[in-house]
């Protein structure tokens, strides 16, 4: 999903989708749709407990309330479908407590930990707890300073976890090393349908691994690589991968320095790929009008 840069934390945490933007393939100005943890995640409602038995409200409002709720869930005192402890300054120690809760609680299905500065220590602990977890389907780790170490732990978890459907990892400084690890893990993951790696300082070194993910994966429908700065070669590789992929419907490639070469490969892929319904690609080439833009739009 697209981000509102003036307030990236609250945009990713308080998810209210807004219509707008630049059309099907995003040639114009970026719209104002923000991250929606639930969008694009199809879950069998029959797998949920009775709604009367699942507590989803009220959510904790302060850091102390968040830690209390985490402890209660860890002790099995509550049945709760969703837990939103975003923006609660939990820190690494709070991340460790969340990990213990994840190990012990079997009712939680959606967990929002966005913008808590749990750092790699907390992310590693949560990832390890999720290796054997069979209930959490949506996980938001936006803006937690996971770094490459945290990303690699997430990758190891994705190799064995078959419950998680939606993973939000934007703004975590995972770099090319973390991106490559996650891409290689997701390549063979048959259940994850939505992955957000936006704004992670990924760079062109991870381009081949991400293209291989698009080529090989048979489950992912929404991949966000906004601001990955992948470069023209990666754009070409992604275009070739999209010729074979029939699962992804939404691929976010805004601000990736794709240049004319990369954009042309992606546009050519659209001629044979009928699965893509949304391919935002603005801020990839410095032109506003002229024969190059007209040619690509055709």
Estimated helix fraction: 25-40%
How far apart the termini lie comes to: 25 Å
Estimated share of beta-strand residues: 5-15%
Instruction: Give the biggest sheet.
Output: 7 strands, parallel
The class by helix and strand makeup works out as alpha/beta
Radius of gyration (CA) equals 19 Å
Question: How many extended strands?
Answer: 7
Given as residue ranges, the uncertain stretches (5+ residues, pLDDT < 50) are 1-11, 13-55
Q: Please tell me what the overall shape is.
A: elongated
Order of helices and strands: HHEHEHEHEHEHEHEHH
Give average pLDDT, whole number.
84
Kindly describe this structure.
The protein is an alpha/beta fold and 298 residues long. It contains ten helices and seven strands. It has helices at 8-13, 63-74, 91-104, 119-130, 147-158, 175-186, 207-216, 232-242, 259-270, 291-297; strands spanning 82-84, 110-112, 138-140, 166-168, 194-196, 222-224, 250-252. It has a seven-stranded parallel beta sheet, with no helix packed on it. Residues 1-11 and 13-55 have low confidence and may be disordered.
Helices, strands, pairings?
Elements: H1 8-13, H2 63-74, E1 82-84, H3 91-104, E2 110-112, H4 119-130, E3 138-140, H5 147-158, E4 166-168, H6 175-186, E5 194-196, H7 207-216, E6 222-224, H8 232-242, E7 250-252, H9 259-270, H10 291-297
Helix pairs in contact: 2-3, 3-4, 4-5, 5-6, 6-7, 7-8, 8-9
